[in-house]
Design goal:
The complex is a heterodimer of chains A (193) and B (186). Chain A has a seven-stranded mixed sheet with strand order 1-8-7-3-4-5-2. Helix content of chain A is 27%, strand content 22%. Chain A has five helices and eight strands, in the order H-E-E-E-H-E-H-E-H-E-E-E-H. Chain B is of the alpha+beta class and 186 residues long. Chain B has one domain (24-183): 3-Layer(aba) Sandwich (Glutaredoxin). Chain B is 31% helix and 23% strand. A seven-stranded mixed sheet of chain B has the order 2-1-6-5-3-9-10. In chain B, helix 2 crosses helix 5. The two termini of chain B are 29 Å apart. Classes of the chains: A alpha/beta (193), B alpha+beta (186).
């Protein structure tokens, strides 16, 4: 498999011929069938303590992958910050996982700049999350069941504290199947946050 | 697994269109670094070059190509000293030199942001066969518009010759492997 892929990649000159639209990544809600266990990569909290996939079992979890250099990611963080205290009593864990290379520094600075009060700091300590979780673009938000298996992902920005997103997350909490019709609308930032 | 399948699909997709002759791909450019220095394709002789095109104001989703490049440099260890990672903005209007410099710093001190006049960028994009399109603003805010561009990472050898373009789903591991092969003179 590996060699095959490499052989194909070596044919890369032809890639220069693909039109711009071919590089676009589909956005929206994508159910994961069958549910996929996440690799247990090294995720730490603000104190450097392990805070990864193994700690996400026991209840459903929303994992938002973001970076401080990603404007649409930064733009949706305040909605996630508002969502957390609203939805956690209902049984959902809300995790914002920062992919910055600077680690917790980037997350803390961005939280301070945006006035984030509820989200905890989670950092991708070994910078593995993008690849391990298969996220070619940011933001990507993973929806996990109570066994920390991915049951769906949302690619792009969303108003996470909005009515439609909350309805989607309540379906996740209830263990209902996540279907594409539950997708909250995509949100594009209208200004530089 | 999904990634592998996607990589395979991307790989197959690239074989289907009629390949262009390498002669149409000159890889020439004349641009300015985020520190205001004029550079061209002969400026980094002796170094392997990694080059991506894009913009820092990604309005909907941001490609992780520069993270992949940074990850590959990590994997190369001391050999990363022989590599120059370059990022060419296709949106010089919003990507000022200061903005580019700040953005590059998120990926590491080696990263060099390149910009220039619209003509310079158009010429560079043409010589790399990069297509991009700026969509007219949909709101009154003229700074808010969309830019489509072809994604991927170019690897040039120590003489500046294009060796390969990695697709936008390439992993840091694959990129590092390819760079090692280029260094070893494959």
């Amino acid at each position: 498999m590996r060699m095959d892929r490499r052989t194909l990649l070596i044919g890369g000159l032809a890639l220069a011929a693909i039109p711009a639209h071919a590089a676009k990544v589909a956005q929206g809600l994508f159910p994961t069938q069958p549910p996929r266990p996440l690799p247990n990569i090294d995720i730490r909290d603000n104190q450097g303590q392990a805070a990864g996939v193994a700690t996400w079992k026991g209840k459903p979890t929303l994992v938002n992958l973001w970076a401080s250099w990603c404007l649409p990611c930064v733009a949706e963080l305040p909605a996630l910050d508002r969502l957390k205290p609203m939805i956690e009593p209902e049984g959902l864990r809300v995790v914002a996982l920062c992919l910055d290379r600077s680690g917790a520094v980037g997350a803390v600075n961005t939280y301070a700049r945006l006035g984030i009060r509820n989200l905890d700091v989670h950092v991708d300590h070994q910078r593995q999350a993008g690849e391990a979780f298969g996220a070619a673009v940011l933001p990507t938000t993973l929806l996990l069941d109570d066994q920390a298996r991915e049951v769906a992902r949302f690619v792009g920005g969303a108003a996470w504290d909005g009515q439609q997103a909350v309805a989607l997350l309540r379906a996740l909490i209830a263990g209902k199947p996540i279907t594409p019709d539950l997708a909250p609308p995509l949100v594009r930032p209208t200004s530089n946050p | 697994m999904k990634l592998r399948v996607l990589a395979l699909v991307a790989g197959l997709a690239l074989l289907s269109p009629a390949p262009l002759g390498a002669s149409e791909f000159s890889g020439r450019f004349l641009l300015e670094t985020h520190d205001g220095q004029r550079v061209n394709d002969e400026s980094f002789q002796g170094k392997v070059r990694l080059m991506a095109f894009g913009y820092t104001y990604c309005p909907d989703v941001c490609p992780t190509a520069l993270s992949t490049m940074a990850g590959a440099l990590d994997l190369l260890g001391p050999k990363a000293d022989q590599v120059v990672p370059l990022f060419v903005t296709v949106d010089p209007k919003r990507d000022t030199k200061a903005q580019l410099k700040d953005y590059m710093s998120a990926f590491g001190p080696r990263f060099i942001g390149l910009t220039g006049s619209q003509q310079m960028i158009d010429a560079a994009a043409k010589s790399f066969r990069v297509r991009y399109e700026i969509h007219q603003p949909t709101t009154k805010d003229s700074d808010h518009y969309l830019v489509d561009h072809s994604a991927g990472i170019y690897i040039m050898d120590r003489q500046g010759r294009l060796v390969v373009k990695m697709g936008h789903l390439a992993t840091a591991d694959e990129l590092a492997d390819r760079v090692r092969q280029v260094m070893d003179g494959e």
